[in-house]
Structures are given as C-alpha cells and as structure tokens.
C-alpha cells in the first residue's frame, strides 16, 4: 500500500513539474549586433547590413535601404521568433514592410511582407 501511495505522489509531482515548466517564460534569442541580411526579390537578391539593438524582448532595427535610404523599425523577439516592422514614407504615402522569422544561433530565416507586392524570403547571418 505504501509503495502505491509513494508511486502516486511521485507521478503527481512529475506532472506538476511538467506543468510548471510549460508556464516558465522562454528567454528571447540574442540578436543584438550586425547581421548580413539578404532579401530575395523579383529584381534579384538585395543584400544589406542590418543592425539590431535589443532590450529583453524588444528590438530596434536599422539598415541602409534602397538607394542608400536609411530604414529603421521596431519589433520583438519571443523565444526564437522575431518580428519587426519598417515604415517607409514615399510620395504615394507610407508603406510598411513586416519581417517575420526564426533565429537559429547565428542565422535567421523568414519572410518580409511588402504590402500588396507580396512576401519575399530573407536570410541573415550574424557578423558581430
């Protein structure tokens, strides 16, 4: 009887531990630094050095864009998932680029949604 009670207690503690582990916050990936980023577009690959600063889950992004225009944006890193938005002001109005990707160590892959123009894949590798 004691063995059965002990077994039930051990199983209950194990189940409780699993539930607690699921509720624990996941540490965000560290993406601070300079990344060599390439976006694949219908006009060809567009390489750029992207700089990320990070405070916890919050990130800031900057890169030299098309024709040297500075692109800046903000977003989040949750676990290995990263997302940021860049808003470009054009003569036709503001235009948003929304990047969503996954971080795997010092590499990042994902897509950028370019309004009605569609989504394009991007890859990035950490430089420093």
How would you describe this structure to a colleague?
There is one protein chain. Helices cover 17% and strands 58% of the residues. It starts with a helix and ends with a strand. A hairpin with a 5-residue loop joins strand 3 and strand 4. Residues 2-21 have low confidence and may be disordered. The chain has one helix spanning 2-23, and strands at residues 33-41, 44-55, 58-64, 70-78, 81-90, 93-104, 107-113, 119-126. The chain is α+β, with helices and mostly antiparallel strands and 128 residues long. The longest helix is centred in the N-terminal third of the chain and has 22 residues, at 2-23. It has an 8-stranded antiparallel β-barrel. The protein is globular. 16% of the residues are buried. The chain has a single domain (33-126), classed as Quinohemoprotein amine dehydrogenase alpha subunit, domain 2 (Lipocalin), CATH 2.40.128.
Give the name of the CATH superfamily: Quinohemoprotein amine dehydrogenase alpha subunit, domain 2
Class from helix and strand fractions: alpha+beta
Mean pLDDT: 83
**Main β-sheet description:** 8 strands, antiparallel, barrel
From the alpha-carbon coordinates, what is the Rg to the nearest angstrom? 21 Å
CATH fold field value: Lipocalin
Number of helices: 1
What is the CATH level 1 assignment?
Mainly Beta
> Biggest sheet, strands in spatial order?
1-2-3-4-5-6-7-8
User: What CATH architecture would you give?
Assistant: Beta Barrel
Shape: globular
Order of helices and strands: HEEEEEEEE
Name the quaternary structure.
single chain
Catalogue the unreliable spans: 2-21
Percent of residues in beta strands: over 45%
For the record, give the distance between the C-alpha atoms at the N and C termini, rounded to a whole number: 61 Å
- The total number of structural domains is 1
Helix content: 10-25%
Total beta-strand segments: 8
């Amino acid at each position: 009887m004691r063995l059965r009670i002990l077994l039930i207690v051990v199983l209950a503690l194990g189940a409780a531990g699993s539930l607690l582990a699921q509720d624990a916050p996941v540490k965000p990936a560290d993406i601070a630094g300079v990344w060599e980023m390439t976006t694949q577009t219908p006009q060809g690959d567009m390489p750029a050095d992207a700089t990320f600063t990070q405070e916890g889950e919050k990130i800031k992004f900057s890169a030299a864009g098309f024709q040297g225009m500075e692109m800046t944006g903000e977003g989040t890193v949750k676990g290995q998932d990263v997302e940021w938005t860049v808003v470009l002001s054009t003569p036709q109005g503001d235009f948003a680029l929304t990047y969503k990707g996954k971080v795997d160590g010092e590499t990042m892959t994902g897509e950028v949604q370019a309004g009605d123009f569609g989504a394009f894949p991007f890859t990035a590798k950490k430089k420093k």
